[in-house]
Amino acid sequence: MKEVYKKPEVLKNPNFHFCPGCHHGNVHKLVAEAIDALGIREKTIAVIGVGCGVFLYDYIDVDSLEAPHGRGLAVATGVKRARPERIVFTYQGDGDLASIGMGESVHAANRGDNITVIFVNNTIYGMTGGQMAPTTLLGQVTTTSPYGREFQRDGYPIRMAEMLATLEGVALSARVAVCSPKLLLDAKKIIKKAFEMQIENMGFAFVEVLSACPTNWNMSALEAMNRVKEEMIPFFPLGVFKERKMSDVF
Amino acid sequence: MSKIFIRGSEALSMAAIDSGLRFYAGYPITPQNDIPEFLSRELPKVGGSFVQAESEIGAINMLLGASACGMRVMTSSSSPGISLMQEGISYLAGSELPAVIVNVTRWGPGLGGIGASQGDYHQATKGGGHGDYFTPVYAPYSIQEMYDLTVKAFEVADKYRTPALILTDVMISLMKETLIRRFPEGVSIPDKPWAFKEKMEDKQKIIKSLYLKGNDLENHNWKLYRKFEEMKKSEVMHDCYHCNDADIIIVAFGMVARVARSTVDIARERGIKLGLFRPITLVPYPEEELSRLAKKCKNFIVIEMNLGQMLYDVIRIVGRDLNVKFYGKPSSYVPNPEHLFEKTMELFNL
Predict the structure, then answer these.
(1) DSSP for B304-324?
(2) Cβ-based neighbour number of residue B80 at 10 Å
(3) pLDDT reported for residue A248
(4) A127 touching B (Cβ < 8 Å)
(5) Are strands B281-283 and A87-93 parallel, antiparallel or unpaired?
(6) Chain segment A44-77, per-residue pLDDT in tens
(7) Which chain A residues are Cβ-neighbours of B92 within 8 angstroms?
(8) A105-131, pLDDT tens digit by residue?
(9) Which of the residues in chain B have pLDDT under 70?
């Protein structure tokens, strides 16, 4: 019989703690598949931000370091400079990377540190119970924007992938989604590419993944998946905003 | 061993490199800038990394990452920058990662001024960051100690897997004295089996400070506490100058202690039996040594370049029954020995 699918070897078998319909599980699996496909399990170090993704080390069997909230890319800079031979990635949410950690994120990108970033954007603070995030859409109701996000009071949602694409140090900046089989396959390719670029010493590789949080959006899993398509993608367009080619580097 | 004539900041930086420092991250702030300037020049020569971070928050977290890889790491800053690092210091303590943090203090609060001060004693010794933890704190008072205590701080940080602080000021940092460079060939660094190596070893390593299950966090806190108890037994350092027959003992640390040595000499020339007790480790504090002195000598004067911080530790240790005076000077001008002599005489009505 031909094997058409198997669980990535680097994935462990923990008690699954994510809510039904949450996309963290999908994103974890795509990261695991990239690690397996590139054969970099022994070389990989995960730097994990604070949020629902903090237990990544219970799912993915690689050396792991927990960063303070927002500081993932400063921590990863230290790791990569101390161990340049290892493959370092951060796994961070929108509150972590784009709010409290904006300074650390932008400067690591600008330095062009040779790190892969998986940025999970679900437009909300998941672990703390559904507060407004820097990526919360206008009009979106959260526990701290009970009347909906208003730009006069709260500013606009931040488009990280586009913003980082303007920086010289960035080798790859892309936005993907995992809300349909087709988009999931596209996301898989880009995430793998973001690791490959690090192996090739190309510089900072950033992948934003639009992700559902049904629990804090007060939606069913299916409704949440549809919201990604109908509300998030129009504001956060998918695509590759910057991609450095080999010839640009050498 | 030959002697060299060198600044405090250079002695400290040289000691760091001799101790095997290979990763430094920091952010510009006066008056500690000579340390990153020295290291940005010297670290690349020994194959080390120097990073000018985007902020002190960035710097301390870069240390966290490099330390997890087993590298000897250091940052330096001055008071406001150290405030920003407190979050990271708490995480280093919680994650049990060694690092050396140098505070060339300035005068606060807020932006304050850039002169010498001891206003950060409370912050350095009583935590600073959140949570139930202790960090060893070294207070050098000479250029030789800037070197020796830096070597010691790296050793202790590794031994106990803890951040260690060096609390100094602009006077000691910019003063020049002769130095015996004890380890020009470098020191030997212990193996760190817990750290991330060239590749993953037989099983996954997780370095973290989050403990949510059962009694894990309580056990973790007890573990940190036991380490501190061990430090109290093995790592306390102090210095006594004419304490044995003293009628009055000055308690001072760092720059003030340096000045107070001369004050003791002035008093002794006039037949007044003054002594000096100097804690070298502010954490763990030399409690036993001080309380032993308090059995013989009943008069103490605590002198600090602040308005009374170490004072509370001294009162706690010697007890309220003794005659404990205080003289503090919240100023960038380091008091001179004669001034301290006059104030001491005044406070004891001599």
Answers:
(1) ESSSSSHHHHHHHHH-TTSEE
(2) 15
(3) 72
(4) no
(5) unpaired
(6) 999 999 989 999 999 999 999 999 999 999 999 9
(7) none
(8) 999 999 999 999 999 999 999 999 999
(9) none
Spell out the residues 6+ positions from residue A174 whose beta carbon is closer than 8 angstroms to its own: A161, A190, A194, A206, A207, A208, A239, A240, A241, A243
The reply to whether residue A103 touches residue B210, judged by beta carbons under 8 angstroms, is no
Q: Provide the pLDDT for residue B316.
A: 97
pTM above 0.95, yes or no: yes
Question: What single letter denotes the amino acid at residue B224?
Answer: L
ipTM of this predicted structure = 0.96
Place of tokens 């069913």: A220
Digit-coded pLDDT (tens) for A197-230: 999 999 999 999 999 999 999 999 999 999 999 9
The rounded mean pLDDT for chain A is 96
- Number of neighbours of residue B229 by Cβ within 10 angstroms: 12
Rounded to 5°, the CA angle A246-A249-A250 comes to: 85
Residue A250 predicted with pLDDT over 70: no
Report how far apart, in Å, the C-alpha atoms of B106 and of each of A198, B4, B37, B43 are: 42, 27, 19, 26
Cβ of A77 within 8 Å of Cβ of B55? The answer is: no
Q: Which residue of A has its CA nearest to B197?
A: A83
Between chains, do A54 and B210 touch, taking CB under 8 Å as contact?
yes
- Of the candidates A57, A67, A85, which has its C-beta nearest B198's C-beta? A85
Interchain CB distance below 8 Å, A41 and B95: no
Distance from CA of B40 to the nearest CA of A (A): 15
CB contact (8 A) between residue B69 and residue A104 = no
Asked if A82 and B66 come within 8 Å (Cβ–Cβ), the reply is yes
pLDDT over 70 (residue A249): no
- Give A62's contacts in chain B (Cβ within 8 Å): 200, 204
